[in-house]
Amino acid sequence: MCPKVLTFLLVASIQIYTEAYGDDSTAMSTLKNEWENTPSTWVGADPCGGNWEGILCNNSRVFSMTLAGVGLRGQLSGDISSLSELEFLDLSYNTGLEGSLPPSIVNLKKLRILKLVGCGFTGPIPESIGSLELLESLELGSNRFTGTIPPSIGNLSKLLVLDLFNNLLEGSIPVSSGTTSGLDMLVKAQHFHLGRNRFSGTIPDELFSSDMTPIHVLLHDNNLTGSIPSTLGLVQSLEAVRFEGNSLTGPVPSNLNNLTNVTMMILSNNKLTGPVPNLTGMAYLNYLDLSNNSFDASDLPSSFSNLKALTTLMMENTGLEGLVPPALFDIPSLQTLILRNNKLSGKLDIASSSSSKLKVIDMQNNNISFYPETPERRNKGIVILVGNPVCEHAEPTANYCTVPQANSSDTGPPEKCVPLHCISDQILSPNCKCSYPFRGVLVFKRPCLESIDSNSYEHLEEESLMRSFKRHELPVDSVVVSFPKEGLLGYLESNVSVFPSGQNHFNTTTISAIGSLLNLQTIENPNIFGSSYFKDPYPYSAGKPTVPDKLSRTGSLIGAVAGGASFLLLLLLAGVYAYRQKKRRERPSEQENHFAYLDLKNSDSVPRLKGARCFSFDEITKCTNNFSEANHIGTGGYGMASLSLFYCPAMVVSFA
Ligand SMILES: *[C@@H]1O[C@H](CO)[C@@H](O)[C@H](O)[C@H]1NC(C)=O
Ligand SMILES: *[C@@H]1O[C@H](CO)[C@@H](O)[C@H](O)[C@H]1NC(C)=O
Ligand SMILES: *[C@@H]1O[C@H](CO)[C@@H](O)[C@H](O)[C@H]1NC(C)=O
Ligand SMILES: *[C@@H]1O[C@H](CO)[C@@H](O)[C@H](O)[C@H]1NC(C)=O
Ligand SMILES: *[C@@H]1O[C@H](CO)[C@@H](O)[C@H](O)[C@H]1NC(C)=O
Ligand SMILES: *[C@@H]1O[C@H](CO)[C@@H](O)[C@H](O)[C@H]1NC(C)=O
Ligand SMILES: *[C@@H]1O[C@H](CO)[C@@H](O)[C@H](O)[C@H]1NC(C)=O
Ligand SMILES: *[C@@H]1O[C@H](CO)[C@@H](O)[C@H](O)[C@H]1NC(C)=O
Ligand SMILES: *[C@@H]1O[C@H](CO)[C@@H](O)[C@H](O)[C@H]1NC(C)=O
Ligand SMILES: *[C@@H]1O[C@H](CO)[C@@H](O)[C@H](O)[C@H]1NC(C)=O
Ligand SMILES: *[C@@H]1O[C@H](CO)[C@@H](O)[C@H](O)[C@H]1NC(C)=O
Fold first, then answer.
1. pLDDT digits (tens, 9 = 90+) for 53-110
2. Regarding beta strands 73-75 and 360-362, do their DSSP bridges make them parallel or antiparallel, or are they unpaired?
3. 643 or 299, which is more confident?
4. Nearest to 446 by CA among 282, 289, 217
């Protein structure tokens, strides 16, 4: 071959990298080099051409990167900011992703979803994050971010989800004033998850207004003071309110009773005073916890029996006295009633009404003098009266005078499969199949562990999770949830193992989907789970020696195909180049341009390089149902698009 042709081939191949493959190959290869445990399908130089798992492109530009819970390690380098077409970025549950967020992330102007939940990020949230004008979801929960909430977040006028839960953030909650922005400007946002940080100061009156439409306002477990602003009562859309674990004082504003859509309200562990609030306007209220406050000593309001949707009522240590109104036991849905550490007295009169679902009645340390136990009641659930006068003279057989102990049933291999053994470090599923499960930890607050029947608890969770996986058509064979134990910080934790069906391992895409779904699931079903979150998936790449082999063989196969394809492409380009050169010679007046073949993309007469090897956006919208509401999981806004994207068929290397 003559040198001219060789030179051409060299130039051509460089140009293919930067033009045909888009600008993103450099940035992606930097990220790939900086991260450990990238998918084995990340081979070759073109992130859009080689079926890179977790990457979706539009016109040869990366517009979605979704790698949740795949065990990525390393830092998020500033190079990511050159992926200027990026709209979805989800790197959640990679606990090995550390360091601070590069401030240049605010250059990703097209970003709509930024999900970095459950990673190891530290340092401040970039001050000008508010310049990501298109952001709909900012989810930075369960990291170790420090500093204050950047007021510029108030500029995110399209924001639906703000999740800063479980970080080390401090300072006050910013509201707008004249020149500065604040969270009160987020009138579209449905989720304010600011719990478990170190926020201080008062909850500003200005934070809430009737213009807002939040469904979750979670400010729990901070260091907030002052009273609950009465403006909260203007936010008619509210469904969950969690202010527990602060130092809030003063009375509960009476207009909260206007919030008819609230299903969960937790105000426990504060210093609230005044009368026990009248909440009978909350017709759908099913979880109410007012424990550990300093309300005026009073009877348990009999109006509580009008809360027909109530499943859990917790009023431990709230100054209650007098009789427990018998009508309370007629609430058909009530399952858990915790009234410990009050001064409730007299007879505990639980009519053996057949409709009652009450499983747990915990009345420890009250002044109950008489309890006529019936056999029906004993079969239905647990009553605990330890620390009441009634137990001072009770017969030793009275089981309501002991605190039942939970039976831990840490799951070994299921009994029915006992003769089976799995090779290497595979694990036996409940359906007796050997595979590599995806494992993680569910963290949650349960009202009363000691009185929960472990079997029904685990099955509730397992069934609920399985339903969710089925609904999202994930290839899951079975789920095992262990009985919860107390973890760090006093939160209860369960181990979760998700077993694959079909194959003995999940691929990265599915892992990513399961990771997202586990977290969404816990939010979707706060009543069953007692409000929980998902953390610490075990890096899935760990402990599966046979799998990487297989995957990397597939990987190199794809690489080979892609490589061969590139060579064909080169030949094709060479042909086109020669053709264009010939044409040019025929049009001598035309300006000399050695890179004329770059115009390929604009020419009708030659193969289209740009976009041809990626999904068209049409295809993507087809398989994600236009990022429609229908694909949202749980209540409003969660996991928008990013989850459903996983179900796109694999990209095909072709020149069609
Ligand atoms: C894909 O690219 C086309 C053309 O540049 C553009 O019109 C479209 O909005 C892009 N789609 C996405 C999802 O970025
Ligand atoms: C936020 O918006 C205000 C105007 O509403 C503007 O003055 C300010 O510069 C913006 N801040 C950022 C960080 O974009
Ligand atoms: C909470 O705030 C009070 C005063 O506002 C302060 O004394 C206390 O140290 C703070 N607690 C924590 C855990 O930050
Ligand atoms: C209350 O919930 C219902 C049903 O979910 C919904 O249609 C209605 O818009 C909600 N009310 C408000 C004020 O958001
Ligand atoms: C809310 O409750 C207050 C009384 O607490 C009442 O005066 C007001 O009219 C109610 N507002 C709405 C919108 O129902
Ligand atoms: C509680 O509020 C309801 C309206 O939601 C009202 O009808 C009822 O009278 C109130 N009860 C008390 C004791 O104030
Ligand atoms: C109430 O406070 C006690 C003592 O601090 C604590 O053990 C208990 O868990 C608290 N109850 C609730 C429901 O948070
Ligand atoms: C307990 O109840 C009895 C009446 O049943 C009452 O005499 C006594 O004062 C109460 N004790 C306390 C500590 O409230
Ligand atoms: C714990 O196990 C024992 C025997 O194995 C059983 O009798 C008891 O009912 C169990 N308790 C609970 C709460 O499941
Ligand atoms: C989860 O599994 C790990 C490792 O097997 C174990 O150390 C831990 O105690 C388990 N945690 C729970 C809550 O069961
Ligand atoms: C991953 O697994 C799912 C479900 O089995 C499958 O639909 C998908 O095509 C796989 N993705 C890749 C890149 O192999």
1. 889 998 889 999 988 777 889 999 999 999 999 999 989 878 899 999 999 999 999 9
2. unpaired
3. 299
4. 289
Question: What domains lie within the chain, and their CATH numbers?
Answer: 427-535 (3.30.70), 598-655 (no CATH)
**Residue 575 confidence (pLDDT) above 70:** no
Both tokens of 458, joined, read 């685990």
| Separation between Cα atoms, residue 634 and residue 639, nearest integer Å | 9
Cβ of 314 closer than 6 Å to ligand 7, yes or no, is yes
- Token pair 């009404």 in the structure block, residue: 353
- Whole-angstrom Cα distance, residue 312 to residue 70? 37
Average pLDDT rounded to a whole number, residues 596-622: 24
Question: Which ligand 9 atom is the nearest neighbour of the CA of 405?
Answer: 13
15 lines ligand 5 (CB under 6 A): no
Pick from 566, 563, 570: nearest CA to 597: 570
258 close to 230: Cβ distance less than 8 angstroms? no
Other C-beta atoms closer than 10 Å to the C-beta of 105 total 21
User: What is the spatial distance between Cα 442 and Cα 454, in angstroms, rounded to a whole number?
Assistant: 16
Helix segments in 263-406, DSSP class H: 375-380
Q: How far is the CA of 303 from the centre of ligand 6 (A)?
A: 8
Ligand nearest to the CA of residue 254, numbered in listed order? 5
pLDDT digits over 380-408, tens only?
778 899 999 999 887 777 788 888 765 44
* pLDDT over 90 (residue 250): yes
Would the pLDDT of 21 be above 50? no
- Distance, in Å, from the CA atom of 544 to the CA atom of 389, rounded to the nearest integer, reads 59
Which ligand is located closest to the Cα atom of residue 366? 8
The pTM of the full predicted model, rounded to 2 decimals, is: 0.72
Can you tell me whether residue 107 is helix, strand or coil? helix
Q: Provide the Cα torsion 83, 84, 88, 92; round to 10°.
A: 40
Q: How many residues appear in the chain?
A: 656
Let me know: does 634 contact 520? Beta carbons within 8 Å. yes
Q: Per DSSP, what are the bridge partners of residue 43?
A: none
What ligand 9 atom has the least distance to the C-alpha of 451?
13
